[in-house]
Write a structure and sequence with these properties.
Number of helices: 6
Strand content: 25-35%
Largest sheet: 5 strands, mixed, barrel
Helix content: 25-40%
Order of helices and strands: EEEEHEEEEHHHHH
Number of strands: 8
Oligomer: single chain
Length: 223
């Protein structure tokens, strides 16, 4: 079971067959994590209004990584995104919404729907395995923490290691994946990892590659 805000999601019947989607390059939402967003475009303000009046669910999805565009100039979409429930909404007084989405489960976008709304909508199929508790999933925790410590040290960044040490495996992997300052392709790879163990391995590999690149760049700058 996945809890987000006041809602519980256990079965496919608890999830919509279609969803409003918010294309956002470089954004990553994962099940159980929180993503704050500043909404200001009129079509997405409308999307939030309709979501609040309905299921409170919105799909976060990246534009296609190859930069492909539709005939109307809008970007094509990646195949996989993540549903988030609006668990917090504040009005700013100048026409914006400040919202927090809590990740529920990933989905595959089966087809984009022809709709009259200004925002885009897709027919989706959810990743039902995401609704199961993954807190105790097996990961190589020492290798993950070692790689991330090295990355933070190399970039003169800090983390709340006390909180990190207390986090269960699912929270740790998903939170580090969202915090990691990597590009859209890396974010999509983390999103599409089939399970938590694979996501942790992917994050370790991406982090080690980033460290190796930085070491090479530093070495070449000294030559």
């Amino acid at each position: 079971m996945m809890q987000a805000g006041n809602a519980h999601y256990r079965l496919e019947a608890d999830l919509p067959a279609q969803a409003a989607v918010f294309p956002l390059a470089g954004a990553l939402l994962l099940p159980g994590t929180r993503l704050p967003l500043n909404i200001f475009e009129p079509r997405y303000l409308q999307m939030i209004d309709e979501a609040i009046a309905g299921t409170r669910l919105v799909g976060i999805i990246q534009p296609s990584l190859d930069g492909a565009l539709r005939a109307d100039g809008e970007p094509e979409l990646c195949a996989v995104g993540c549903l988030g429930r609006i668990t917090s909404l504040a009005e700013t007084g100048d026409g914006r919404y400040l919202i927090v989405l809590q990740g529920v489960c990933r989905f595959r976008a089966l087809e984009e729907l022809a709709v009259r709304t200004a925002f885009r909508q897709c027919r989706i199929t959810p990743f039902l395995a995401d609704l199961q508790d993954q807190a105790g999933a097996e990961i190589d925790r020492p290798a993950l923490l070692k790689a991330f410590r090295a990355y933070l040290k190399a970039n003169e960044l800090e983390a709340d290691w006390e909180s990190v040490s207390r986090a269960d495996n699912a929270v740790l992997v998903n939170a580090l994946s969202m915090m990691a300052p990597y590009g859209p392709a890396e974010k999509q790879a983390l999103l599409e990892a089939p399970d938590l163990k694979t996501r942790a391995e992917t994050l370790i590999a991406i982090t080690e590659m980033a460290l190796a690149r930085e070491t090479d760049d530093f070495g070449s700058s000294l030559q």
